[in-house]
Amino acid sequence: MLGQLPSGYSKAIHGPYDPAIFYGKADMPLSQVKVYQLPAWLLRKQFYNPVAYGRAASRAYWRWNHKYVLPKYSGITPLLQMTVGLCGVFYVMNYSKISHHANAKYHW
User: Fold this and answer.
1) What's residue 64's pLDDT?
2) Average pLDDT across the chain, whole number
3) Which stretches in the chain have pLDDT values below 70?
4) Pick from 24, 9, 14, 22: nearest CA to 59
5) CA 8, CA 25: separation in Å to the nearest integer?
6) CA distance 1 to 4
7) Does the pTM of the predicted model rise above 0.70?
8) How far apart, in whole angstroms, are the C-alpha atoms of residue 58 and residue 3?
């Protein structure tokens, strides 16, 4: 499973492999799903499969990479985005320690 191309990919049809593209069968978007079709649509999305989460995260990373990091003149945008993202992650990790240091004046 690791290191192999997706089963829906064909070099003759799709050309060079791009990790940012989903090569499976296209499904209808959520905006076009009728209410009675919703349970079947949700089951097709594989919310229960951890491998699907990994593949979706990989596609999202490569889309971000192609848009912000790999262009010839990308500037400092990817560095700023990573800095803000890491600040958010470390804030969430240390929230229990930070929340005890609130400066509050209690009025009885």
Assistant:
1) 92
2) 86
3) 1, 102, 104, 107-108
4) 22
5) 7
6) 6
7) no
8) 13
Q: What is the pLDDT of residues 54-75, one digit of tens each?
A: 888 988 999 999 999 889 888 9
**The two structure tokens encoding residue 7:** 């089963």
Q: Token pair for residue 43?
A: 């089951």
Distance CA 4, CA 26 (A): 21
Three-state SS annotation for the chain: CCCCCCCCCCHHHHCCCCCCCCCCCCCCCHHHCCHHHHHHHHHHCCCCCHHHHHHHHHHHHHHHHHHHHCCCCCCCHHHHHHHHHHHHHHHHHCHHHHHHHCCCCCCC
From CA 6, how far away is CA 9, in angstroms rounded?
6
Query: What number of residues does the chain have?
Result: 108
